Amino acid sequence: MARRIDPKVGERVKELLATGLTRREIARQVGISKGTVRAMATGQWFKRPAKRPAKRRVEFKPPSGPLVWCSRCRANVQKPCVACGARRWKAGQNQK
Ligand SMILES: [Zn+2]
Q1: How close is the Cα of 57 to the center of ligand 1, in Å?
Q2: What is the 70 CA–ligand 1 centroid distance (Å)?
Q3: 83 Cα: distance to centroid of ligand 1 (angstroms)
Q4: Is 72 in the same domain as 95?
Q5: In a domain, 52, yes or no
Q6: I want to staple 25 with a disulfide (CB 3.0 to 4.6 A). Which of 17, 21, 56, 95 is the partner?
Q7: Cα–Cα distance, 43 to 40 (Å, whole number)
Q8: Mean pLDDT throughout 66-92?
Q9: Residue 11: inside a domain, yes or no?
């Protein structure tokens, strides 16, 4: 998560940049990272949206399609087989 920086700091950095101070010096004076000063100097920082878009939820897609014989669990299921998928996922978790 990006650190929130007071917009006033952005203004201060702008002022200092205008005076010709080095980015390193500005970073030290304002108390932010050089990377942030660089982002501000190149205008990237100011373009950043104030709010991050809400995280997209991963939608659960139920299996669809014709019923087929699952060779793993020997059930008549729709592919992909949810039961086998869960088992594979569990097996992967156990390996960690
Ligand atoms: Zn299965």
Answers
A1: 26
A2: 5
A3: 5
A4: yes
A5: no
A6: 21
A7: 5
A8: 86
A9: yes
The string of DSSP letters for 7-67 reads HHHHHHHHHHHHHT--HHHHHHHHTS-HHHHHHHHTTHHHHS-SSPPPPPPPPP----S-E
Structural domains in the chain (count)? 2
Q: What is the average pLDDT across 69-88?
A: 86
Q: How far is the CA of 23 from the centre of ligand 1 (A)?
A: 59
Q: Is the dihedral of CA 78, 75, 70, 60 positive or negative?
A: positive
**Could you tell me the distance, in angstroms and rounded to a whole number, from the CA of residue 88 to the centre of ligand 1?**
10
| Same-domain check for residues 66 and 96 | yes
Give pLDDT, residue 9.
87
The CA 89 to ligand 1 mean position distance, Å, reads: 13
Domain that holds residue 32: 7-47
pLDDT band at residue 1 using 50, 70 and 90 as cut-offs: very low
Is residue 40 domain-resident?
yes
Both 94 and 66 in one domain: the answer is yes
Q: Give residue-wise pLDDT tens across range 13-68.
A: 999 999 999 999 999 999 999 998 998 888 877 665 666 666 777 676 777 778 88
From the CA of 95, how far away is ligand 1's center (Å)?
A: 20
